[in-house]
């Protein structure tokens, strides 16, 4: 299965998402989007395919969001996209694209919605939260 993750290795959610993809037996294409951001066309498509608004795909925490005044409701989608492309850290993460769909994997287990059920056993997130049992089935 062809899977792409827009990844930030400094982000625990992104690391957990990547680990869940690998737990499904898949080695994804990893794009470290802070240094290799998507094109405007790719970003717009990812956001739309994930069913999000541009504002929902904008990251506030640990970014220059406030300093840039991006909370202003009068800013257009084009203005927000311009900011995201100028400073890719403003793109929320991780976005994952598979043949089964596109998701912003926050929380990380959202990625399970677009992966095949081929998990290789239990999975526990970095913080100790159990996500999959020994048979690779989701713990609810």
Question: How would you portray this structure in words?
Answer:
The chain is of the alpha+beta class. The protein has a single domain, classed as 3-Layer(aba) Sandwich (Glutaredoxin). Helices cover 23% and strands 15% of the residues. The strands form two sheets. It has a four-stranded mixed β-sheet with strand order 2-1-3-4, sandwiched between helices. Strands 5-6 form a two-stranded antiparallel sheet. β3 (95-98) and β4 (101-104) form a beta hairpin. The radius of gyration is 15 Å and the shape is elongated. The protein starts with a strand and ends in an 8-residue tail after the last strand. The relative contact order is 0.22.
Please give the structural blueprint.
Elements (H helix, E strand, L loop, with lengths): L3 E4 L4 H12 L5 E4 L7 H10 L27 H10 L8 E4 L2 E4 L18 E2 L5 E3 L8
Parallel strand pairs: 1-2
Antiparallel strand pairs: 1-3, 3-4, 5-6
């Amino acid at each position: 299965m062809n899977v792409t993750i827009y990844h930030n290795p400094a982000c625990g959610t992104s690391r957990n998402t990547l680990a869940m993809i690998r737990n499904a037996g898949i080695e994804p294409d990893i794009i470290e989007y802070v240094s290799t951001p998507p094109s405007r066309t790719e970003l717009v498509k990812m956001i739309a395919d994930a069913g999000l608004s541009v504002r929902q795909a904008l990251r506030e925490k640990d970014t220059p969001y406030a300093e840039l005044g991006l909370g202003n409701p009068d800013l257009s989608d084009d203005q927000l996209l311009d900011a995201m492309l100028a400073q890719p850290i403003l793109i929320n993460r991780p976005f994952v694209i598979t043949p089964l769909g596109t998701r912003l994997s926050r929380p990380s287990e959202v990625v399970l919605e677009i992966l095949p059920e081929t998990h290789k056993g239990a999975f526990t997130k970095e913080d100790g939260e159990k996500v999959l049992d020994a048979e690779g089935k989701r713990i609810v």
